[in-house]
Structure formats: C-alpha cells, structure tokens
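Notebook p. 47: complex prediction with dTDP-4-keto-6-deoxyglucose.
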Amino acid sequence: MFKKFKVVLKSISDERGSLIVLDRYENLTFDLKRAYYIYGTQKNITRGFHAHRKLTQLAICLNGSVKLMLDDGFHKENFLLTKKDEALMVAPLIWHEMYDFSKDCILLVLANDYYKESDYIRDYNKFLSLANPQNS
Ligand code: T46
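Predicted complex, structure tokens below:
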C-alpha cells in the first residue's frame, strides 16, 4: 500500500567509499526548506503521533535503525529504516510514529516547509475525520 513511499537513493561508490546525492531534479520531489535530525533517542520511546496538514517530508536513517509506522486512516504499514540509501516519504495527512530507535540512530528528515505548529494534527480522531471525511 505505502510501497511507493519508499525511495531508493543512488549511491556513488568507489574505492574511497560512498556518496549519495539528494537534489530537486533527481530524487527530491519537493523544494527543500528545512532539515532536522533526531538522535540519542532513549530506549522504548515512540515519537511522532501526528500527521501534517500540508507538509511533505523525506526520512533517511543515516546511522543505526528505526521503525516508522505510516497510517492513512485506512491502512497502517510499518517500515524498518536501516540503509543510508533508502528514504521514506511522509506525505501530508499520513499519521506517523517512529519507534524502536537503535541507540546509535540518526534520523534525518528533509521537509518542504518551515516549522509551523498549526500544520500538525495531533489528535487521532481529528486526523481520521480529515483523512476520511465520510466518517465525520
Ligand atoms: C515529524 C517527525 C518525523 C522545532 O522547534 N522546529 C522543528 O523544525 C521541529 C521538527 C521541531 N521543533 C521543536 C518542537 C518540539 O518542541 O522540537 C521539539 C520536538 O518536536 P516534536 O515533538 O514534534 O518531535 P517528533 O519527533 O515527535 O516529530 C518530528 C517532527 O516535529 C515532525 O514534523 O514529522 O519528527
């Protein structure tokens, strides 16, 4: 269902190591306005628990591993991010939770807009009513 949200990034490797490029023309489908990263997450912590109204984001696990649960109000799917050349798109109106962070996890998130608390939907029932207006 959410398979299309997974993006494989091209790794340019040679005897020195590897390099991955993210740019607007190749693999970034949006204009980048903000980047942030999450690290040092404590054991058994789950983050997220929200959807965004308009924001589109791309998550890449730069180190360690983390699981992401995506929920469009109809289906839920869990993804394990462990590879530097794998990214997960978190589209608008997708409820998401991040969990099972390894101790060394560094989760990079690229976003197409600045931080706006008004873009967050933090109430799950509110999210369901927006994701599926027929339910409300
Ligand atoms: C998301 C997932 C994947 C800022 O001041 N500016 C920012 O750009 C961000 C992202 C956060 N903050 C502040 C807001 C909170 O006081 O940092 C604090 C932690 O943010 P939050 O509790 O929203 O963190 P997560 O891990 O639950 O969610 C974050 C992003 O906020 C969110 O957009 O999609 O990562």
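Notes: Residues 34, 36, 38, 47-48, 57, 90, 109, 115 surround dTDP-4-keto-6-deoxyglucose (CB under 6 Å). Helices lie at 124-131.
Next step: compare against the earlier run before touching the bench.
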